Each structure stands twice: as structure tokens, then as C-alpha cells.
Amino acid sequence: MATPETPRTNSAPAEGEFLAAQPDVVARLREDLPDDEVLYDLAELFRMFADSTRIKILYALFESELCVGDIAQLLNLSQSSVSHQLRLLKNSKLVKFRREGKVIFYSLDDDHVRSMIALGMEHVEE
Amino acid sequence: MATPETPRTNSAPAEGEFLAAQPDVVARLREDLPDDEVLYDLAELFRMFADSTRIKILYALFESELCVGDIAQLLNLSQSSVSHQLRLLKNSKLVKFRREGKVIFYSLDDDHVRSMIALGMEHVEE
DNA sequence: TCTTCATATGAGCAAACGTTCACATGAAAG
DNA sequence: CTTTCATGTGAACGTTTGCTCATATGAAGA
Q1: Searching chain A, which residue's CA lies closest to the CA of residue B61?
Q2: Is there a contact between A18 and B68 if contact means CB atoms under 8 Å apart?
Q3: Dihedral (C-alpha) B50, B53, B57, B62: value to the nearest 10 degrees?
Q4: Which of B 57-116 have CB under 7 A of nucleic chain D?
Q5: CA-to-C1' distance for A25 and D12, Å?
Q6: Do A42 and B60 touch (CB under 8 A)?
């Protein structure tokens, strides 16, 4: 997808300002680094988990599919806020939905979501 | 740590605005959700990975310890920018450092960093 | 001590984010 | 068709973010 993520100004730093202590290592690493596009996408993915509201939504969806109203009530959020966040999660392919009459049920759309959050938990819990 | 993360206004939504389709499920989920504090910390952790500059820095540190100048040159960033980001990573206990004369070498301080990024990669690469 | 070199840090700015508010959309019931 | 109800969406707003610039810190060498 490669959305520009956060294309701040980021002009090249002044020429010859600071030296590398290990030019050889730097040169080798430059080869091995994944493409910028991939790293942008990666950051974009992590950004989905970088807000506690979205974390809560994902956490809630661990156990069962839920509609917007369910989530809003559970997390004490406005319907609008939940809907906005679900759109982001949907775009990032972390969440999918299913229509049933007027109600739309959301559920997790990626096996990695659980392991991702579980892994983060390990760090948080020291 | 429980930094307030992004304590936006987030006032409670208007009373009785929207209904839950599954009140029973909502009630049960409310019990099971981890504490707000934990979820804040979790989001804070993910926020460290939510910027491609920081991802690049962490990626670079996969292979060997590096000083600020190394990283700046490798990633074409200003010394100041790298230093600012390293401070964040340091505060989040993702990175540690070691002084050698005037040079300060940074390295990964958490086993989860690699698996975290690897897991994210799996999602990005479809 | 006085420089020099590597790094740290505070202020300021422009961009991006998450929420709210108001309204649009679209399906079902009458 | 009209109303109702669940959800979607655009604009506005205040906050946060990541960068730059200028300067501070602190170690090593002259």
C-alpha cells in the first residue's frame, strides 16, 4: 500500500557534518535495509496499534464479533469515534465486516493481530 | 509506566444514544478487558514502532551496535533527529547504550524487538 | 585551561492524529 | 413513500508528533 505515512520535511542533513565511527558496518547495513516502501508500510501497520482506543477495539474483537453500537457502549465511546476507527482498521486489513440487516458486525481479519498484541503485552508486563 | 499517551478530551458520549446488539456479550467483555493503564502502556509501546525513522533505527541495530553518527549517516538523517529518537527508544527500554570515550554506542535492549518487527513484516508482505 | 568532537536538549513550526458535531447513506418496517 | 434506526463521513478543533535550528553538555587532547 505504501501510504507516505508521515512525509515530514526531512531534508538531507548538512554535508559532512558528523562522521560514522564504523563506515564499513554502515556500508554493509545500507545494503541490507529493506526498501523504504516496506518500512513505511510496516510503520503504518504499527500505527494501527499505537492508539489505546484501537487496541481496545481489537481486544474486544478477540472474543466475538461485535457491531458498532456494542463497541461504543463497551468502551464508552461515541458511535462516530468507533466508526472512524473501524474504518482505519478495515483499511489496514485488520478487521472485516458482515452485514445483517441494519447492523454491521465487525471481526478480526488477521491471524497476526492476536500474536502482535500478545507479544506487546510481554514487554509491557516487564 | 502508564504515561497518559494521548489523553484527548473523550467525554462520555450522549446518554442512551446507541444500543448494543448483544448486551450480554458486552457485559462479559467489560469484565475481561485489561486495565486501562495496561492498554495505555501497550499503545505507547506500539507507538515506538509507528514511525519509519524509528523502525529503521531498530532495524539497523539488529546487526550491530551503532553510534549516533553511524545511524545518522546510514539513514541520511540529522544528528539531532537521531538523538531525539534514540531518547524515546531509550525511555521505552527498547534500546540501551554504552559509552566509549566521546562515542556512545547504542544497541537493542529487548528480545521482543526482533520478533515484533518480524511479525509485522509477515502482515505487510501479505 | 581552551579547543575539539560526539552527543543531548529546548524551542518553534508544520503536519498528522483522534475526537466531536452535524449531516449523509442505506436498509427495514409501517 | 416516509420514518426509523444503525452506521458512515466531512469539517473543525485542540493535541501530539517529528523535524530543524541553535545551543548546552561533557569527554579527550593540546
Answers
A1: A29
A2: yes
A3: 50
A4: 77-78, 80-81, 84-85, 88, 99, 101-102
A5: 49
A6: no
Contacts of A117 in chain B (CB under 8 A): 42
How does pLDDT run across A106-123, given as a tens digit for each residue? Answer: 999 988 999 999 999 999
Task: Give the separation between CA A78 and CA A71, rounded to whole angstroms.
Answer: 9
Do residues A116 and B122 make contact, with C-beta atoms less than 8 angstroms apart? no
Angle at the Cα of A27 from the Cα atoms of A22 and A28, rounded to 5 degrees? 100
B104 has a chain A CB within 8 A of its CB = no
As a whole number, mean pLDDT of residues B90-118 equals 95
**Cα–Cα dist A83/B104, whole Å:** 46
Distances (CA, A) of A41 to A4, A34, A37, B24, B113: 8, 11, 6, 38, 17
DSSP state of A111: T
CA-to-C1' span, A95 to D19 (A): 33
The whole-angstrom separation of Cα B112 and Cα B126 is: 22
Model confidence, pTM: 0.89
User: Would strands B66-67 and A103-108 be described as parallel, antiparallel, or unpaired?
Assistant: unpaired
Distance CA B93, CA A126 (A): 10
Rounded percentage of chain B residues whose pLDDT exceeds 70 = 86
- pLDDT tops 80 at residue B19: no
R_g of chain B computed on alpha carbons = 20
